[in-house]
User: Fold these one by one.
Assistant:
Number 1:
Amino acid sequence: MVIRKTIQELEEKYKLELDKIVENIKKNKAKKVLLQFPDGIKQWATTIVDELESRIDGVEFFIWLGSCYGGCDVPDVEGKVDLVVQFGHSKNLRFLG
């Protein structure tokens, strides 16, 4: 059974800070952005990407499908993307560029 959620429902529950993500992408002039989600949010990754794409042009988003065991579990994508955004349980997003 697929559970569909609107971006508003997701932001209320998970505090995704999408404005902060868009601001950071613009600040870093990132064109390729990898989004890394914990397993509990991964099922809504495409909804989040759709929202980000509606807010910012010219950025290619990638979703990390591998495991994510926390802030120390950063994918080795050096030179392949401009920015990595890690979603997690912390009150602060992590931007790795």
Note: Residues 7-96 form a domain with the Rossmann fold fold (CATH 3.40.50.11840).
Number 2:
Amino acid sequence: MATATVGESKALKVVNIHEAKTHLSRLVEEAANGDSFIIAKAGKPMVKVIRLDAELEKPKSRLGFLKGKFVAPVDIKSMFQEEIEEMFYGKE
């Protein structure tokens, strides 16, 4: 077994596929307890195994998180209309 640095400088255990097949039950228990690891093939990292609810703990983005942070102009549909018409039709 080796260790690898992934993401935010967290050293993870690297297990080759043969070893993962041989010790699958133990490795799954370790992952369920929060000890994530990487399965590698010929030394090349292939997958990261993590506890299932670890993904669910991430904060979800929420709709309307910028509400009240800025105000749209009242004339947003006609903003720069004169300038755009000048670019297409020239000055009158």
Note: The helical segments are 17-22, 24-32, 52-56, 81-89.
Number 3:
Amino acid sequence: MRSTASALLLAIATTTAWGQEPARGELLYATHCATCHSERLHEREKSKIRSLADLRDEVARWAPQTRHRFTLDEREDVVQHLNRTHYKLRN
């Protein structure tokens, strides 16, 4: 388990492409967002999210509620994680 976490952290640390690290988005979400709500929140019927712009706005809106200062790249990774796993929106 420890070697898997170390490998994941190494992969995150070496990532330079904007919004291109699926594992980082998942890890950031699990670490900083899922503590207040489960991913089931994203599966509710009356979602406000209708576009990637909506999703980006919501992530930006709630990011300050965490104790982590998200960079733009990190927020985009969370957006991409949520889109890939729940919303499946197109650009």
Note: The radius of gyration is 13 Å.
